[in-house]
Amino acid sequence: MPNKRAEFWAFVSGKGGVGKSVLALNMGQALSALGHRVLLLDADLGLANLHVLANVDPGGRLERVLARAESLSEAITPLPFGPHLLAAENGQSVCLLSGTDAAEGLAETLGRLHAEYDYVLVDTPRGLSEASLRFCRACDRTLLVTTDEPTALTNTYAWFKVASLEEQALPVWLIANGTDDPHLQSRFTALCERFLGRAPFWAGQVPRDPQVGRAVARQKPLCEEAPRSPAWLAIKQLTNQLQREGRSPSAGDGGIMPSSQEAGRTR
Fold first, then answer.
1. CATH number, domain containing residue 50
2. Using one digit for the tens of pLDDT, what is the confidence trace for 20-45?
3. Within 10 A of 144 (CB to CB), how many other CB atoms are there?
């Protein structure tokens, strides 16, 4: 398809420990199982862990590509369970996303991926920083991952508040991870609408499941470790909904609903 353009998803979180990287890895596998060409791009420079979760020794690193010390093709590592991986360094101090040259290098790298993949899933640094916002601006959708813990919800609200002020048009979807709270979506939406006048779109909820921790400990995706686990089934469902929806949110598509405030603006 000559004009094929990859869809980029940025995974973000208000704090660490909410399962952002684990979700990115498993949603990448779910997209790959649907027949899509998928690249997992670890943009958590200096604290990268996608290669650890996938139990692979990457052939190259994103930092070396941005520094033009390594070609993009050399840096990409095929994973045994479907997606490809562009890993990043871990445990090294890096400041590669500041400055015009680095920004141009990042834009060039992302641009070259459009023709090679159907989906590029970008695992960004935790918290809100200029680096994570830069990736969000470059992506088609931002997936904001939270849990039902009070600290996670507080930081998730703070992330959305600041991001909304910085980038009012940023398309953000909320994923509630590792929770069985049926009211989390409605409570978070009401909070955002009351104080911000808008709320993120709803992507879905992944239930609390001890098999997720076991899969992480064994460095395997859920599809291999526990293919019938509630968490894996939920991840497949929300991934299917997001990829069916495409780049534009729709109130009637697959149960992915904007908030009532946002829906009113689109009528």
1. 3.40.50.300
2. 999 999 999 999 999 999 999 998 87
3. 25
